[in-house]
Write a structure and sequence with these properties.
Largest sheet: 6 strands, antiparallel
Shape: globular
Helix content: 40-55%
Strand content: 15-25%
Length: about 550
Amino acid sequence: MRNGFKIFVAENEIKSSVFFEDEYDSFVVKNESLEIAIQGVILNKKELMQTHRTSDFTSFFVDLYKKSSWSVIKELEGEFSGYIIDRIKQRLFVFTNPTATQKVFYYKENKNIFFDTSLVRLSQSIKEKNILITPDLNVIYELIAFGNVLLDHTPLKNVKKIMDGNVIILNLKDLMIHSYSYFDVTISKPYSGNKKDAVDQLNYIFRNGVKLEYEKDIQYGMTHFSLLSGGLDSRMSVLAAVNQDYKPNIFCFSQSDYFDQTISQKIAKDYDLNYSFVPLDGGTFLKKIDELTTISEGCSLYTGGIHVYHAFEKLKSNNRKIIHSGLSGDTILGGFVSEPKRKKPDYKLLLVNKTFLHKIENRVNVILNSYESEEIFLLRNRTYNRIVLGSQVLKNFNHCQTSAFMTKDFTQFALSLPESWKYNHEFYFLWLNTHCKESSKYLWEKTLTKPNALWKKKWGEIVNKKFYKAYINYILKKPELTSMYPYQVYYNNSKDIQNYYDNYFKENIWRLEHYPELKSDVEFLFSQKDFFQKSQAVNVLAIFKLFFN
């Protein structure tokens, strides 16, 4: 899964290379007129084959392409990317999945055009053609301000990422590039029914999404394997599977004895589910700076996935391919709604460091003004550009992460619901307590209350969690129990980690010598006491180390 493909196009020349094997639902077909390569998991492959009464998916896809051209991609659900070279029509189509968890990048320089599923490999291909690549400093400041890059940006100047649900069409005659959306999250017809019917319909869609994932395990001959923490999204996913008679193996990783472990352990025990746990204690994994920057490719902060990398590195191997999760549940059902009405986006739910925001504020304002919905802006720029880093990490272990919260049907339906319903997670609570009431028996890590009444959420966030943190910090003096992964505590308590970061900074700050303003800003970040800003400084250096020196 992790190796992907690359394509080089120049005048009268097109070269493609595929690095994946025939695993998952991946396939490659080549003949004189057509070349198609698709890599990944097609969750609805079986349903498509049954509907169209075929036993050969590759032939079915080729035939459907001949009938409907690139719109054939609309039929696919899952974790995939691919390309189609049509030598008769002189067209190249390159695409990613609806949530852009499967990254594809591209770059055009005069009559040289590159496509690649790896930004690192693409940068190497560009250099091999003696083309100079330079950093996009505006994007570097985006990364510092927001924790990830925005839209289709990358840290490499003029190199772009194919956005969620998009296909790039290249005319091989004149080398003109156009981008089209085959699944557009901005087009969602407002829901017109009542709230009770909406809850029932949402639950029906969600259960179908869970079934689609788990049936895929059976098709592959794999055991079910699901992530579970102390949050709501993962428990909703696991219990929806259990209620449909699936029995997933459970995996959790966090600071030992933190609520993510204790809550998930209790759920697994109550439902007799096999449970595995990897502790994050001590945080020695924070030294894997280069490894995670290579995976994130400078498009999001490496710290967002470094604990996931550690956990799966330590996990004993077993019979699994798909990693079931609750990715995006909280966000698609209210987490990105700051007011009980539709509003244009602002920085509030995306900003992580405002120190240098002024340097890119005008540029960012143009982006913000191009969106009518805060929710859609954040879905595209936070979920699809930041939160999915865990999916990239799992690809490194040849696993594919899925989530029933991220199917096309669920996304469209959730976005169609009024913001006033989703505000403060009211609709989420109504759904949970109507169709999965058993999940409300357990504490919610976010509030340390049971999610069986909306007032408890407000109480927990404002009072309960704050008193708990004060008690842990000042009475018990165990600050490591304040978070799933208390990076600041790990850093403060480890001279080894401190020395590693100091040395990394000293050994790599020279890489910014041609960018004095950025160098000064990075030095300022590293001089701060908190680990987050130090790691941001190091992240910039790691990006320059990876791509530019």
